[in-house]
Design brief:
The chain is α/β, with parallel strands linked by helices and about 300 residues long. It is built from nine helices and eleven strands. It has an eight-stranded mixed sheet with strand order 1-2-4-3-5-6-10-11, sandwiched between helices. Helix 2 packs across helix 3. It is globular, with a radius of gyration of 18 Å. It starts with a strand and ends with a helix.
Length: about 300
């Protein structure tokens, strides 16, 4: 039987981060896994299923919401800075290694989508981690942006970024946009039906808001985890890549895998960016579980 409890800890600058801690049955020191979600997502967007699958096999698991999102504190709300998220995640690792029953020398990290990029950066820069799983990870914000934003729309997007930079000098708040929308007249980060279905799922309605700062999009387009992939070694790295991913883009993840050094493993799954949480959950979770079992 797995017990899930609510936990909280301080982030980089005292911001309170909140999440779930899963404890499996049994006594003695156990390996542990730290987990977080991607761009503008909260832990209720499917992470419970992954965490329970890992905990059922004897792992202590920590899942936290990024600052400014979900149950975690922080302002402005729904604002994303990847490097602050990474700094907070280091605090999560420290919090986890200090929990009773955790073997501090057997901690793995699991990140998905935008946080899959974070997992790569942390795997390369925090040697407390014994292995890394990056699921459908962001590799290059620039290259993804080039694929996902048409040339005709780039000029207006850059103009919006520039106007947003002027807002504080006019006494204004950061400009905001939708995370998902099917209305072409409404600015949004995602418009595909699978993205809309994923973000608006019933399980996340109490903690998720369809809102993100515009500067979060700019930060995402400037975020480049890819160069860190070769530096993860000698920590074991698993990449779980969806073969029809048009969000973090399949070929970019495959290129990152080729650039990574041993020990490493690539697992490909069917479907698009959101398939690991849904139709390909069994394949994605089983691959991660096997990696954690072998390396922790």
């Amino acid at each position: 039987m797995t017990i899930r409890s609510n936990v909280e800890f301080e982030g980089e600058d005292g911001v309170i981060l909140r999440g779930w801690l899963y404890r499996p049955e049994g006594s003695g020191l156990k390996p542990a896994i730290t987990m977080a979600h991607g761009f503008a997502a909260v832990k209720e967007h499917g992470l419970d299923s992954f965490a329970r699958a890992f905990a059922a096999e004897g792992f202590i698991v920590l899942v936290h919401d990024h600052r400014n999102f979900g149950t975690s504190e922080g302002t402005p709300r729904h604002d994303i800075d990847p490097w602050r998220q990474i700094a907070d995640w280091r605090r999560a690792i420290t919090f986890l290694e200090m929990q009773p029953g955790v073997a501090p020398d057997r901690i793995g990290i699991w990140g998905t989508s935008f946080a899959g990029g974070h997992a790569i950066v942390l795997g390369a820069t925090d040697r407390r981690l014994s292995c890394v799983v990056a699921q459908v990870p962001t590799i290059s914000g620039y290259d993804q942006g080039q694929r996902r934003v048409s040339p005709d729309a780039t000029a207006s997007l850059e103009a919006a970024f520039a106007e947003d930079e002027r807002q504080p000098f006019r006494g204004g708040a950061p400009r905001r946009t939708r995370v998902v929308s099917s209305d072409l007249d409404e600015p949004a980060a995602y418009r595909s039906p699978d993205a809309i279905d994923f973000y608006t799922q019933v399980s996340a309605r109490e903690t998720w808001v369809n809102d993100v700062t515009l500067r979060s999009t700019r930060a995402a387009r400037s975020y480049e985890p890819g160069p860190w992939a070769p530096r993860v070694s000698p920590t074991p790295l698993l990449l779980v890549v969806a073969l029809r991913d048009t969000v973090t883009v399949t070929d970019l993840a495959l290129r990152a895998y080729e650039n990574a050094l041993e020990p490493k493993r690539l697992v490909t799954i069917r479907g698009g960016h959101f398939s690991p949480y849904e139709t390909e959950f069994q394949a994605a979770s089983s691959a991660a579980l096997a990696w954690f079992t072998n390396n922790l």
